[in-house]
Recover the amino acids of this structure.
């Protein structure tokens, strides 16, 4: 009731003061919005509008529903509405905010603007078709919004190590630092991939199987190793992610090896994969089975060597 009546009040004051007609509104779960037929509303206008609606609340203006049993009653012409259907029958309900507004409405409302307690206009969002959505909370929702905001503020003060007034700057610095660190991690992983490939290729005893897991790696890390080794006679089983949980896997080598072992490795790791003129790779849920996958690969390659 508070949000609906608040919408009526904001709508009539916005139109009378600035000529912004309301085209629709949304109750919302926590925040309501009013679609105003204007492409722009200034911060100053929002402040003036908020002051005006709260002044009306303090004036304790009655809100009364009125039933008209004759749809042709001349008084109905004064009510704000989109018009009645030609085939309408029965009484017409008008909500009257004394001295401010008369609107056709069948919803529930408070009986006095004082029951709204307070309206807070939160800001604007861009609407459809060159319109503006004005966000607001009224009555009990104002208290709930303040409570949530305070809890968020407390959490951010703990995380950002600074007062509310500095949160935007501190968050911006944290995001930039995170992006910078991520770039550094990507660069280090590339270097590490090159190093792992180099270590494998320069071993005194040439091996035909490379099995490697790196928790912090990604698809680029695994593919970089395979591309750097650049030898299909080498079978690579690479995994990245949580050793006991989900992650990524890659199997490379001879086409026949990939076709035979790819689906089996995916099954062991509880994953799904595919290949397209390259390694067999995909996502998995059981990296805890990577030892079993390694055993499968090594036994298969050993069997091929024995046969040859």
């Amino acid at each position: 009731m508070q949000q609906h009546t608040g919408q009526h009040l904001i709508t009539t004051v916005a139109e009378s003061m600035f000529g912004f007609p309301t085209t629709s509104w949304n109750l919302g779960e926590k925040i309501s919005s009013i679609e105003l037929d204007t492409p722009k509303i200034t911060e100053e206008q929002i402040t003036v509008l908020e002051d005006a609606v709260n002044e009306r609340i303090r004036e304790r203006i009655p809100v009364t529903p009125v039933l008209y049993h004759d749809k042709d009653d001349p008084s109905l012409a004064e009510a704000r509405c989109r018009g009645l259907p030609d085939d309408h029958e029965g009484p017409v309900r008008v909500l009257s905010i004394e001295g401010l507004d008369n609107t056709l409405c069948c919803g529930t409302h408070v009986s006095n603007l004082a029951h709204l307690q307070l309206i807070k206009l939160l800001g604007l969002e861009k609407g459809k078709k060159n319109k503006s959505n004005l966000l607001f909370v009224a009555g009990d929702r104002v208290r709930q919004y303040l409570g949530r905001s305070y809890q968020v503020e407390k959490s951010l003060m703990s995380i950002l190590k600074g007062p509310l007034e500095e949160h935007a700057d501190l968050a911006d610095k944290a995001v930039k630092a995170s992006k910078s660190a991520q770039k550094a991690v990507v660069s280090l992983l590339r270097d590490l991939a090159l190093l792992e490939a180099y270590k494998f290729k320069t071993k005194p005893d040439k091996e035909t199987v490379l099995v490697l897991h790196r928790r912090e790696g990604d698809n680029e890390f695994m593919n970089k190793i395979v591309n750097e080794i650049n030898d299909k006679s080498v079978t690579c089983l690479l995994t990245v992610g949580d050793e006991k949980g989900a992650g990524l896997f890659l199997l490379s080598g001879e086409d026949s090896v990939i076709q035979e072992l790819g689906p089996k490795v995916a099954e062991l790791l509880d994953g799904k994969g595919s290949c397209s003129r390259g390694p067999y790779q995909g996502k998995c849920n059981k990296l805890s089975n990577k030892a079993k996958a390694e055993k499968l690969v090594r036994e298969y390659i050993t069997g091929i060597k024995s046969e040859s």
Summary: Helices lie at 2-18, 43-58, 140-160, 167-201, 219-229, 255-268, 290-307. The chain is about 45% helix and 20% strand. The two ends are 83 Å apart (CA to CA). The first strand starts at residue 22 and ends at 26.
